[in-house]
Amino acid sequence: MSSISVKEASRNAYPKTLLSIVAYVGGLALFLILASTLLVSQPIGSTVRGYFYGVDGSKNIDSDSSFSSTDSELSHIANAFQDGGKPNLAVLGDRGNVISQYGDSNSSASGVGDSKGTLTESDPQEKKESLDSIQLSERNIESQDKNEVLDSIQPHPEVMKEEDGNETSSSNATSQVNPPVYSNEVQPQLNKSVESSANMTNSSQDIVDDSGCDLYRGKWVHDSTGPLYTNNSCPVLTQMQNCQGNGRPDKDYENWRWKPSQCDLPRFDPKKFLELMRGKTLAFIGDSVARNQMESMLCILWQFEVPKNRGNRKMQRYYFRSTSTMIVRIWSSWLVHQTPEPFDFAPAGVVKLHLDKPDEGFMEHIMGFDVIVLSSGHWFAKQSVYITNNEIVGGQLWWPDNTKQKKIDNIEAFGISVETILTALGTHPNYTGLTIVRSFSPDHYEGGAWNTGGSCTGKVKPALEGELVENGFTNIMHEKQVTGFNRAMAKKNNKSKLKLMDITEAFSYRHDGHPGPYRSPDPNKVTTRGPDGRPPPQDCLHWCMPGPVDTWNELVLETIRREFHNR
């Protein structure tokens, strides 16, 4: 029997020990694999994965259908608008939670959730809305880029006046608001949710499509509801249009509404307007009547939200932070190119109108505008020289040589100007906005012109059919404007839209809506006819505020609603 040393015995035992260790480790690994598989396959598995990864595997996040948008899936978004909730959703880092910034149960995205507006686990829309919201949030860059364009369209980099009177550099006036930008699938539902009249209940009545109704054929009806604002509640109202503040004794002219024959014109809803114009810019361009309408719009919106003044001497700009909506006004007396320098036999000091060239003063900004409202016509009664193809073809209150025949008068010149500017907008390769041409605004200097005894003094209600005084100048100017509009429509070749807001006939009945002699707060002003019957100095062209002019903006809102709804 051979002997074995202790050293040799321990060396022979090593392989057995290693094999045992490997066997134990392998067995433990197999057990862990089987246990993990069992846990993941059971309901508790979703909790485990949710804890580590923040994803609930019980929901098919990879399904293509998660991005589809049916009416039923998006109806709760539309209802949020109808119920008065603000559809501004903040998407948090965790995909499972979409919380309303307004944090109440009424503004919850689904109507199923806790009192803080958090979507619950049982909400079947959670996955879809979370993914859609993340996709939409990524599009906010587009909205930010739009605001940068708006902030860069100022003609000169000069100091802007803020509302509180402080001077602020334009570079410091950039927006701090990043509103949600809705996808093509969501937007039609949002439009549909705000189409009902202000007199309708939030969701109890079906929405009626009145897109085929003629808004401009109807009648004026008395409405005791009263105006949308008062002269004391609007700080941007021009004093000359502040009829009540200037002492006008009657105010029933504020209580008449326009009623189309075949449908209703909804009362202006500021919230609806700002939602429709979310992230967009509306520009009023033209003469003092454009200013009249722009101030009416601001007065109405001011009752809902106080805007930020971002304007300067060349361009008025009011920014509504809640929806990143901008209201702009640019002065352009004739809407066409004008020069003061001598031209041919026309000396300096007389304005030369190049009727075949648009006013570059606003044309350079049009790509930053989503909706443009144009106003012109009345300045064609002022002194000016008319030029086409670099040739003097006529003039108003100026013509040095009566032996030479004028080729056009001021009425023809107006028609040419309308065709020129609308053709420029309708053929511009980069303009895709909506252009609303407000038709010629009628004046009511009855019994004469503004300087020959014409008057609107004492008119306290709309004219009846038998009381309507025909205005030949208004009628022919309207005719030329419509002709220019139609000619421009025939030439349009871009993606923009042209709409005629034909208010001329309807407002021919509103001889009661002008300031008349109540143009200033001067307590010593003359407001009655003199002993010889001559009327006092008065304004029968512009419109009292509040007053009939507010209807123009109800028509603008309805035009925008129809256009965005069709899109």
TrEMBL record:
Domain Trichome birefringence-like C-terminal: 265-558
Keyword Metal-binding carried by entry: no
InterPro entries given in the database record: TBL, TBL_C, TBL_N
Pfam families from the UniProt entry: PC-Esterase (PF13839), PMR5N (PF14416)
Cell compartments where the protein resides: Membrane
Domain (Trichome birefringence-like N-terminal) ranges: 212-264
Annotated protein name in UniProt: Trichome birefringence-like N-terminal domain-containing protein
Recorded topology in the membrane: Single-pass membrane protein
Sequence ranges of Polar residues compositional bias: 167-178
Chain positions covered by the region annotation Disordered: 102-186, 511-534
Keywords per UniProt: Membrane, Signal-anchor, Transmembrane, Transmembrane helix
Transmembrane segments: 21-40
Biased composition (Basic and acidic residues): 139-149
